[in-house]
Design a protein that fits this description.
The protein is mainly α and 225 residues long. The protein contains ten helices and no strands.
Length: 225
Amino acid sequence: MDTKDIDGKRHSERKRWTPISAAERHSRLIQAAICVIARDGLPATSTRSVALEAGMNQAMLHYTFASKEELLLAVLDAMHGEARTIIEKGARSAVTLEKAIRRASAAYWKHVQINPALHKAQYELTLYALTSPNSPDLARKQYDGYVDILLHTFAHIEPHRPRAQLEQIAAACIAAMDGLILQFLAGGNVKSCGSRLKWIIDAICSAAAAEPKASEQKRRRNRAQ
């Protein structure tokens, strides 16, 4: 081995073992786990494969996460945060309730089409959380978080509409998207699923528009009595 090879090897080793902050290590391991789960599936994911993907040894992984379960739950929490950000950004600039519904749905659907493996991984992890004794509330908090983001956006646009109505609309949007994603992952037909999404969102928007009228009619009947 000549001097050049030795110097190159030493440089490679120094680069490999460059110290990183705890926050960066945490983030890198989570991103690596997402990549491995999306590529290989949850059953085939191990701490060894995640550490390898992150360019670390297993000791560093276990220094950051006490167990594989702790890592997976942290990954799910990070994925939930990303999903909430997509929903929030999609609806942020809307000035009417209908536009907020349509924009948030379109933004999330676009993300699903670009990252189908990522969404498959998210469902795998959600089911994992439902069976984990250490995370009884994580799956519920996930969906509550999605609904809360839409609810907050809707309430800002229509502050005088009853909260219960807005929450119902928000929950319907999340439920519709959830079912559509599973259909897409199972069948992979973008065109058909896109058409169904439009139909579903049209129906939700129509119901949302009709709700205040129904409430007003009820108030009038109560006053008449």
